[in-house]
Design a protein that fits this description.
- The complex is a heterodimer of chains A (376) and B (399).
- Chain A has helices spanning 7-23, 26-34, 43-51, 69-82, 89-103, 106-117, 227-263, 275-303, 309-334, 346-358, 363-373, and strands spanning 123-126, 141-145, 148-155, 166-172, 183-189, 195-201, 207-221, 265-266, 269-270.
- Chain A is of the alpha+beta class and 376 residues long.
- In chain A, strand 6 (195-201) and strand 7 form a beta hairpin.
- Chain A is globular and about 80 Å long.
- With 399 residues, chain B is α+β, with helices and mostly antiparallel strands.
- Chain B folds into three domains: 3-94, Butyryl-Coa Dehydrogenase, subunit A, domain 1, CATH 1.10.540; 128-236, Butyryl-CoA Dehydrogenase, subunit A, domain 2 (Beta Barrel); 253-394, Butyryl-CoA Dehydrogenase, subunit A, domain 3, CATH 1.20.140.10.
- In chain B, 42% of the residues lie in helices and 15% in strands.
- In chain B, the strands form three sheets. A four-stranded mixed sheet of chain B has the order 1-4-5-8. In chain B, strands 2-3-7-6 form a four-stranded antiparallel sheet, with no helix packed on it. In chain B, strands 9-10 form a two-stranded antiparallel ribbon.
- In chain B, helix 4 (96-108) packs antiparallel against helix 5 and helix 9 (325-347) crosses helix 10.
- At the A-B interface, helix 7, strand 9, helix 8, helix 9 and helix 11 of A face helix 7, strand 10, helix 8, helix 9 and helix 11 of B.
- The complex binds flavin-adenine dinucleotide (2 copies).
- Residues 129-133, 138-139, 163-165, 215, 375, 378-382, 384-385, 388 of chain B line the site of one flavin-adenine dinucleotide.
């Protein structure tokens, strides 16, 4: 699996970098936050992203997408991570589209995927029921009634759940919380009777939602009781693409910090001349380089559907969690007092890193999973 | 079949036919072959294997054929390594000739130097050692004091080196000497090659915490160095010496391809060791804390190996790697050291035996390997020095 980008991927990355820098700089996120934006992202900017094809990067051409693969999506996510860009790209195009692509029947794919690619359909995945990531943790019940599937229960931390038009609900048709068997994916309209959405604004100024479902009718996505087969694939896609975003964020944060060490003077010299800071910066550099490698490897594994996607997704997510945490904490520390201010942007990376960390599995979760996958 | 595929199958056949069975068994520290006139081949197969590989230039697969090397492209070199790994074939010979002075002569040597020295490295006839450090010049290598004076048709060398690995087995020494005491620190240094088979060169082994004596003090007392063995220009040896350090650092971290894969493989794999000594419950190592240590180390190791591969791919695809060998030297040696600390934890008191009777081979090898691993973050430029280099050269932080 290649660990260098090809020419097309490099071009896409450059284009994404320019776009994010010009159209969604960090100041946009601050403005959305301060204006208390309803959506939490800018609809015009999203339309431009759709125009560039980003909503359909991983959707096959047959369904109206670009079919450009996960590495392509990864480099876009990375650039979005650098400017902490707010958009529904991850929830809709990575998680939502992934569920439909891997779980949907032909009819569902034909109907929904082109709408994702054209930007008119926003999706969300309603999985978690506790404050910790738990892929098979659903207790929420689903029952079959007539032709439809009826779900009742509540979900937490549904990324972009406040804006999604359709929600993919992970419910349980048999067994108990923690069982891999018995999960069923149900697709519901967010406007359907019995759906109660409460927007939750997170520390990173991005949005999720707590959603109550009370006897909500929806349609089956994939096979009843076999939802985990789809979920496993989609969660790995999500973990790897989120790792790509984190890679962008941590690089930007690290570069800004190194730059600050060169310009800030104390004791009559740049603080970057103090070895106590130099060595920590050099150690972070190593962690950053290792992070780049695992993300690239995991992205190519997705593109090649190789056997080790699962372990690479855990390798990547655990490492990116830890490295983003380190680099953003040190970023604040090395900026001294100014790093604590809202006006200065460095703290935004720390807030984003922690939300990303807990989305789709913290490091303890992924190290444990990696060990299990490796047989120890 | 593509050229590479036919190279692969021919290589596989040749290895199958020529690699003696005993050379496919895991290699212990004491089995390693360094060559030279003092090498003892306790297992005659080791010599057979060395001669066969050397005959094809495959002891130095990537060096040009005119100097005895294999002339392989990097893709072919990779295939050779894969195929050797597949049958567990040992590296027939290794040492500073291959990892340090050879590559440096290819970069900076004169035609005469290359013709004279490289073929004898490839064949295993001559073994080299490194005379850099002195009692007063360690991390601050450029403060070295060993003098080298022009005596008309030869150079005369006086002074002392220390920590010279393998000096007691070596035939030749490459060394940094001061040729202009008046010039500033970095400007008066030259890089010379000295034949150790002369009275004026003597060595004294130093015993280490591991009980072994892998290195020596080396004394030059009016030693003679032929003029054609000055590498690079007079007083410009620092440039040559630094290049050699890069080759050294790549090889310590196993980056150079020529380095042995999985330095500590002979000590077993951590997960298996953990299961054996700690036990398992539901397929997990039966100690959450130790399991976490093992996982962190294994996952870092995998990320590190991927980064080595990425660096090679980046240089192959035309670009120079965007990061320095110091990353590999620093991270690789720290990782290796940590791995051994974890193995000690896993094996408990069985990992700390000294006498070889009461402890099995793996256990007593571990004790010594653990002690030796501490050198990994000191030799070849300490971890702190590598971090200084990254901070300065890669991140551009001010002095
Ligand atoms: C919440 C808060 C409340 C505060 N309240 C008060 C207050 O009431 N009154 C008041 O007067 N001040 C107050 N301060 C200011 C505080 O004392 C300073 O922020 C602190 O002394 C650091 O100085 P600095 O921010 O200029 O950072 P800098 O000195 O620029 O430091 C930047 C980074 O460089 C590091 N660094 C600096 N010098 C060295 C060195 N020689 N070696 C190694 N590393 C070095 C620092 O550790 C830091 O990581 C407050 C700050 C905060 C964040
Ligand atoms: C097993 C082994 C094999 C060796 N083989 C050879 C060989 O074959 N040939 C050869 O020439 N040499 C060899 N060496 C020597 C090796 O290169 C030196 O030990 C090394 O360069 C460190 O020098 P020193 O021992 O004098 O330590 P010092 O330089 O005295 O360092 C002592 C401590 O201070 C730290 N330190 C020094 N300067 C700085 C700084 N600027 N900033 C922060 N920390 C600093 C070091 O990191 C170290 O922790 C070998 C060493 C070992 C352990």
């Amino acid at each position: 699996m290649p660990l260098v980008l090809n020419e097309e991927q490099n071009m896409l990355k450059d284009a994404a970098k320019d776009f994010c820098k010009n159209n969604m700089p960090i100041s946009q996120m601050r403005k959305l936050r301060d204006d208390k934006s309803e959506a939490g992202f800018d609809r015009d900017t999203w339309a431009q992203m759709v125009e560039l094809g980003w909503a359909g990067i991983t959707i096959p051409e047959d369904f109206g997408g670009l079919g450009f693969g996960y590495t392509g999506m990864g480099v876009v996510m990375e650039e979005c991570g650098r400017t902490l860009a707010c958009s529904p790209l991850f929830a809709t195009a990575a998680l939502g589209a992934g569920c439909i692509l891997h779980g949907g029947n032909d009819e569902q794919k034909n109907e929904l995927l082109p709408k994702v690619a054209s930007g008119e359909l926003l999706l969300a995945l309603a999985l978690e029921e506790t404050p910790h990531h738990s892929p098979y943790g659903a207790e929420m019940a689903v029952e079959q009634a007539g032709g439809s599937y009826v779900v009742s229960g509540s979900k937490k931390f549904v990324l972009d759940g406040h804006v999604a038009n359709k929600i993919i609900v992970v419910a349980r048709s048999s067994g108990k919380a923690g069982d891999r068997d018995g999960l069923t994916l149900v697709l519901v309209d967010s406007g359907a009777d019995g759906v109660g959405v409460t927007r939750t604004i997170m520390a990173d100024s991005r949005n999720a939602a707590n959603i109550e479902f009370s006897k909500v009718q929806g349609e089956l996505l994939g096979e009843e009781g076999k939802g985990a087969d789809v979920l496993d694939q989609v969660l790995d896609i999500g973990r790897i693409l989120l790792s790509s975003e984190m890679l962008g964020g941590l690089q930007e944060c690290f570069e800004r910090t190194v730059e600050y060490l060169k310009v800030r003077e104390q004791f009559g010299v740049p603080i970057g001349s103090f070895q106590a800071l130099k060595h920590r910066a050099a150690q972070m550099f190593c962690e950053v380089e290792l992070s780049k490698s695992v993300v690239l490897e995991a992205l190519s594994a997705l593109d090649e559907s190789s056997d080790d996607v699962a372990e690479l997704s855990s390798l990547a997510k655990a490492r990116l969690n830890d490295t983003y945490n380190l680099v953003s904490s040190e970023g604040v520390q090395m900026h001294g007092g100014i790093g604590m201010t809202d006006e200065y942007e460095i703290g935004f990376f720390m807030k984003r890193s922690r939300v990303c960390e807990h989305a789709l599995g913290n490091s303890a979760f992924h190290r444990d999973r990696y060990g299990v996958l490796q047989g120890y | 079949m593509s050229d590479l595929e036919s190279f692969r199958s021919a290589t596989r056949d040749w290895l199958e036919a020529n690699c003696p069975a005993s050379m496919r068994l895991p290699e212990r520290e004491e089995d390693m072959i360094g060559g030279g006139t003092r090498q003892v081949y306790r297992n005659p197969d080791a010599k057979v294997w060395l001669d066969k590989m050397a005959g094809r230039g495959w002891t130095a697969p990537a060096w040009p054929t005119e100097y005895g090397g294999g002339g392989l492209s990097s893709a072919e070199h990779g295939i050779l390594q894969d195929e050797m790994m597949n049958i567990g074939a040992r590296t027939p010979i290794s040492g500073m000739g291959f990892s340090m002075i050879g590559p440096t002569l290819l970069d900076y040597g004169t035609e005469e130097q290359k013709q004279t020295h490289l073929p004898k490295i490839v064949s295993g006839e001559i073994r080299w050692c490194q005379g850099y450090s002195e009692p007063g010049a360690g991390s601050d290598l450029a403060s070295l004091q060993t003098r080298c004076e022009d005596r008309g048709d030869f150079f005369q060398v006086n002074g002392q080196k220390i920590w010279t690995s393998g000096a007691q087995y070596a035939d030749w020494i490459f060394t940094l000497v001061r040729t202009d005491p008046k010039a500033s620190k970095h400007d008066g240094i030259s890089f010379v090659l000295i034949d150790m088979a002369q009275e004026a060169v003597s060595v004294k082994p130093i015993k280490l915490i591991s009980g072994n004596s892998p290195f020596c003090e080396t004394f030059f007392d009016n030693a003679r160095c032929e003029k054609f063995n000055l590498v690079g220009q007079l007083n410009r040896g620092w440039t040559v010496g630094k290049r050699l350090l890069q080759h050294e650092r790549s090889s310590i971290s196993g980056l150079s391809g020529g380095g042995r894969r999985g330095r500590y493989d002979a000590l077993g794999q951590l997960p298996e060791i953990a299961k054996q000594y700690i036990g398992e419950v539901n397929g997990r190592i039966d100690s959450p804390a130790l399991r976490e240590d093992v996982l962190i180390n294994q996952m870092n190791q995998r990320a590190f190996s991927l980064t080595q591969r990425r660096s090679m791919e980046e240089s192959q695809s035309g670009g120079t790697p965007t990061f320095a060998t110091s990353l590999f030297k620093y991270f690789g040696s720290e990782l290796g050291k940590k791995r051994l600390e974890i193995q000690l934890e896993l094996m408990g008191t069985q990992s700390l035996g000294w006498d070889r009777q009461s402890f099995d081979d793996l256990e007593s090898a571990l004790t010594r390997t653990w002690l030796r691993s501490k050198a990994g973050t000191i030799a070849g430029g300490s971890s702190e020095i590598q971090l200084n280099i990254i901070a300065k050269r890669v991140l551009g932080l001010p002095d």
